[in-house]
Amino acid sequence: MVTTYKTEPLETYEWAKELRLRHFDEAMKAHEHGKLLIMGNMNAPKEIIAGIGDFVHLGGEPWGVYITREGGSKLLMECLEEVERRGYTRDMCAYMRASWGSMFLDKSPSGGFPRPDLIVAFNQCDSQAKWHQVEAEYLNVPFYVIDTPFNGGDGTMKVDEPSLQFVIRQLEDLIEWLQKTFKRPYNEDRMMEAITHAYRSRCLWGEICDLQGTIPAPLDYKLILPFVLALERHAYEEETEKLLTALRDELKHRIAKGITPLPDERCRVTHEGLAPWYALYLFTYLREHRVAVVGGSQQYQQTGPVRPTHEDGTLAPENPPDWNGVPKNKREALRFRATCFMYSQRWSLDPRIRLKMLKAAITAWKANGVIIMYDRGCQMLSSGQLEVKNAIQREGIPTLRYETNRIDPREWSWSHVADSMDSFLEALGVPKIEK
Amino acid sequence: MVSFQDVVNNRHDYAKEWKARTGGKVIGYFCTYTPEEIIYAAGMLPVRIIGSNEPSEVSESHIPSMYCPFCRDCLAQGLTGKYDYLDGIVLAKSCMHMMQAFWSWSLSIPIAFSHFIGMPAVLGSPRSKERLIDEFSRFKESLERWTGKSITNEDLDRGIDVMNTNRRLLRQVYEFRKPDPPLVSGAEAGAMVLSSMLSDKVEHSRWLEQVIAEVPHRQSKITTGARLMIVGSENHDLELYKIIEEKGANIVIDEFCMGSRYFWNQTPEQEDRLSAIAERYITRPRCPVKDVNERKRLDHIVNLAKEFNVRGALLVHQKFCTPHAFDLPHVRKALEENGIPTYALELDVTLHRGSVQTRTEAFLEMLEMEVA
């Protein structure tokens, strides 16, 4: 007996999509609007940069997606080939290659490559600091790198104080450096306001992740993507907080009315790794076969310290001590931002943490299986992935691993991936629906 | 003279024999940013974990194929029990690849002691040294807890002395490569450096002293040839040197972690021993993954090339080695701007002798044409 649910478009989805594209336009016009343009990786401490004045932050990763999605295959291939022509290898970070190609060619879907005033990177993997080092040298702009505190940890989310202090001190150095570089005073209130938005956005995201545990799920993977981008890119802005508030409220309404993206949910899976951006039809294909892709553990990871994975495998909310989203002083604000970085880093680099979070997400979302994208375009997200896969398979959770590259379509074979998906659905007991 | 090549070939027997003879513990480490001074201070033998250069599939279910062949080869050695004599393993964070090998080893192979040192990467930052001192202190305490024995300043002095003596002697050996023809071949020097990572440095230093005494008086078979430099990522396959030198070239200097980067600088004398050790690892010739924010590696490479009167440089890197892939075009540019032609060679688990021979010949012909 098939249960049929009501399906309706998600209203806030259009807002999130519009915000994503508007962001690139704002980056291109930052100087025209009297704002600084700051580049770097998505994880850069934008909340801290906020204290130096009006700015637009352009992350290299979303710019790589922009080249791929909006630039089309012709521009993307021109960009990738330009990077190879300059002697860099094809196995390097795919986001970086698309972004570099755009920079070297001075081409993008918006025309050219925007010239930043500053580049700030959080050195999380082998690529992030080196990527922006080359960029800063090529564009001849100031460059600041914040180093990783990762030292393996103890396999729990417990914060290691010396490591945390290492990051906090570097954030303090960054504030000093920003003032020297731009010869401007630093506005701590603006920084704390940005931290407040970031904190609240993460809390909202935690609530949204929780709602995904409902059967039927109110969102599927494709619908989630622009919101994840908004959270990663603009968590520090008021509009993101408003967007996520609206999303949460709309999801509650959809749950109450039984409205879902799928007319029926034959099974629920998580998708680990990012998306092959040129082939999002993969998720449409799964949707057509009534498979609810409810999210990925990296989406839970975005909640950072407000939703740590507890040792009992739950993801209950946790407020930072003594404050409820509004930091009382600079010290607390920096501590929160540094903790966010440490949480993100542990999820990225420690397979024990990633496994715990995935298991917690599987439980919270009532998932029947796991699809893992093995991403040749990102050594960080692929790190520890096989150990995680081996561990969840040992626990009897059906798992599919497919290989591709999130940006470079030369490493994509849809027929091969579709065959794998079909076999996986068979194994889950929900063979594909013949049309 | 001891055969350093034999020490490399019989490295596992050597470590087992050392353990039986001394009753000490053997610690395997994954990267040359590991402070061996502290391991020697604890009375243990540090040995670098290296691969076998033989094809193996056992790592495939642990480390994806997009990671470098070296890290997968290292793990394969652990999974197949080649390192079953190790009492502990240590990683000083360098690249994602070696971190993969460390995690998979820790998760799949039972071992008494495992430690991860958070080696900073932004070495130009004033925060890096204090961070590294903290991390070395944590490592020292971890060893002390495990063994139940304190590591004193005297122990650290001994560890520093063991390391510095070996480093000084290796640099003396490298001086023999400056004349034309060099008095020590690249293959010989390579075996000396690699064996120093795999044996007790107190003993190794005695062997080096013998070499240093004998080399000026021995009948050398080395003839004048194109003076080459090797720059790049890890390579522990000594065959590479032999293949290149069989073609009439002389490898006179290198810049990689199984060569000069390993021993080039000394731990300074300071009251705070951990600070001194940290200073040494912060200021040593950098691996590309540590050469961010401000570039120091390129000048170092060019200076070495000039100092050793290099005619051409082979840029070798492990397939999928991202940090070196970042630096490759920049190293090439820096050398070529200084009149030193370059040729890139990509390495895999096994060395393709024919391919390396052909490429080396082509490069040497190119160098000859430039001279003409």
Structure description:
The complex is a heterodimer of chains A (435) and B (372). Chain A is α/β, with parallel strands linked by helices. Chain A has helices at 11-28, 46-49, 60-69, 72-85, 94-105, 128-139, 161-182, 188-211, 221-234, 238-257, 281-288, 297-301, 330-349, 351-365, 379-382, 385-394, 414-427, and strands at residues 6-7, 36-40, 55-59, 118-122, 143-146, 259-260, 267-272, 291-295, 369-375, 399-404. Chain A has one domain (6-427). In chain A, strands 3-2-4-5 form a four-stranded parallel β-sheet, sandwiched between helices. Chain B has a domain at 4-155: 3-Layer(aba) Sandwich (Rossmann fold), CATH 3.40.50.11890. A four-stranded parallel β-sheet of chain B has the order 2-1-3-4, sandwiched between helices. In chain B, strand 7, helix 14 (322-337) and strand 8 (342-347) form a beta-alpha-beta unit. In chain B, helix 4 packs parallel to helix 5 and helix 8 packs antiparallel against helix 9 (201-214). The model of chain B has no long low-confidence stretch (mean pLDDT 95). Chains A and B meet through helix 6, strand 5, helix 7, helix 15 and helix 16 of A and helix 5, strand 4, helix 6 and helix 14 of B.
